[in-house]
Each structure stands twice: as C-alpha cells, then as structure tokens.
Amino acid sequence: MTPEGEVRGNTHDVSERISWTLRPVVSTRHYTHWHGMYEVGKHFYTEFLPAVVDAVEKKSPQLGEKYKQRVAELLAADEHRWMKGLSPEDAEALRRMYKQRYNQ
To answer: Is 16 helix (H, G, I), strand (E, B) or coil?
Structure first.
C-alpha cells in the first residue's frame, strides 16, 4: 500500500490470507450454534424429560402417569414432529426435489 492509501501489487495473496483467516472464525460460529442446539435437543429429549417423569413417578405413581401424558402431548406438537422422522411420502418428495435440483 502506498502512503496515499493505494493498493499495488498482487492483491490476490492478501485476499487469500484474509479469506483463510476469516473462514475458521465464521465456521466456528456456525458450528458452535449447531452443536449447542444439538446438545440442548439431545439432553432435553433423552435425559431431561425422562428424568422429570422418573422423579415424579417416585413421588407419586398417579402424578407420574399425568406427567407421561403431558410429555406425550408435548412431543405430539408440530415443533417436535421431526423426532418421528419423515413419512415415506415426505422422503419421496424430498428425493424428487433433490433429483430435480441437482439433475441426478
């Protein structure tokens, strides 16, 4: 760079170095978000909810049944539908979409 602020010479090397420096920073942010959401989901569904039901059942079997029913209602909501996986129709629609999108 000249004293006047002009960039001269091979700017590709500088651009490449900046790109390689920033790429891990951006990727780390996305990975951290993804992994955090994964951990929250994993522990919520596989550890927290069962632990709540177990703790309540130890206190009162009748209350335990009530909590099991409540958890089942919670997991039946649309926002938890992903846990059941894709229906055969949804899987086929997804395959068709990818085949059309990527010409494969």
So the answer is: helix
**What's the chain's Rg over C-alpha atoms?**
25
Tens digits of residue pLDDT in 3-54: 666 656 555 666 677 666 666 666 777 778 888 888 988 899 999 999 999 9
What backbone torsions phi and psi does residue 84 show, to the nearest 5 degrees? Answer: -80, -15
Give the C-alpha distances (Å, rounded to integers) separating 81 from 2, 9, 68, 76, 86: 60, 56, 17, 7, 9
Q: What percent of the chain has pLDDT over 90?
A: 44
pLDDT of residue 3: 63
CA 41-66-71 angle, to 5 degrees, is 15
- Between the alpha carbon of residue 40 and those of residues 20, 33, 54, 95, the distances in Å are 30, 11, 20, 29
